[in-house]
Amino acid sequence: MNRPSHPPRAVSTRRAYILRGAYYFFFIFGIFALSYAGFVVANSRSYQALEMKKFQQPISLSEPHILGEGDVIGEIQVPRLGIDAVVVQGDSPANLRRAVGHLSKSALPGERGNVALAGHRDTLFRPLRNIRLNDEIQFKTRERSFEYRVESIEVVAPTDIRVLESSTGHDLTLFTCFPFFLWDRRRSVSLYVLVKLTKLVPLHAGLK
């Protein structure tokens, strides 16, 4: 017994409904994605401007202060790449959406060891795609300005954390996800930039 077949017009109409539904779905999804991306960028810029202004205001250095999650530590600059960003304590997703994050288990600026800073490849650390050996990097706190020079650049697996290990010198490591371009993200690895301290400049009298 032959089953009744659907008329060609009915099949064509059903296909048109499916295609139209898919079109509207991806159209709405695209608008939502662009709106969210715009919100993240605007929120980051607003936060950076506000915290940078507060960071540059003079405060009493005699008052003891224990760093808490999200507290501003300083400002990082890579002049050749145009990077100028606030650095906060902690690398939580909330912190990294609007600032560069300091890994709380790594050394603090001025301490002997490895200062580790993380940033998103799509926002504040995106210019690192053009980082070069011997580039100058500055890390400013309220007390001192630390000047570094890029010594090595490595692309490693996310599980390879040896470059974040403590050291006996005064080192700084910047890291972000890699690669930077959307069409080349079939594999997700990490980019590490290791820099060495070349100069320390006290910003206030009496500091060494």
Uncertain runs are: 204-208
In order across it, which strands form the biggest sheet?
1-2-3-4-7-8-6-5
Shape: elongated
How big a fraction of the residues is strand?
A: 25-35%
| Run of helices and strands | HEEHEEEEEE
> Strand pairing plus helix content: what structural class?
alpha+beta
Radius of gyration: 24 Å
CATH class of the largest domain: Mainly Beta
CATH topology of the largest domain: Sortase, Chain: A
Distance between the termini: 96 Å
| CATH architecture annotation of the largest domain | Beta Barrel
Verbal overview:
It is a single chain. With about 210 residues, the chain is of the alpha+beta class. It has two domains: about 60 residues; about 130 residues, Sortase (Sortase, Chain: A, Beta Barrel). It has two helices and eight strands; from the N terminus they run αββαββββββ. Strands 1-2-3-4-7-8-6-5 form an eight-stranded mixed β-barrel. Strand 2, helix 2 and strand 3 form a beta-alpha-beta unit. The protein is elongated, with a radius of gyration of 24 Å. The N and C termini lie far apart (about 95 Å).
In short:
The protein is of the alpha+beta class and 208 residues long. 25% of the residues lie in helices and 31% in strands.
Write the layout of secondary structure elements.
Blueprint: H1 8-55, E1 72-78, E2 83-89, H2 93-96, E3 100-102, E4 113-118, E5 136-140, E6 144-156, E7 170-178, E8 189-202
Parallel strand pairs: 2-3, 4-7
Antiparallel strand pairs: 1-2, 1-5, 3-4, 5-6, 6-8, 7-8
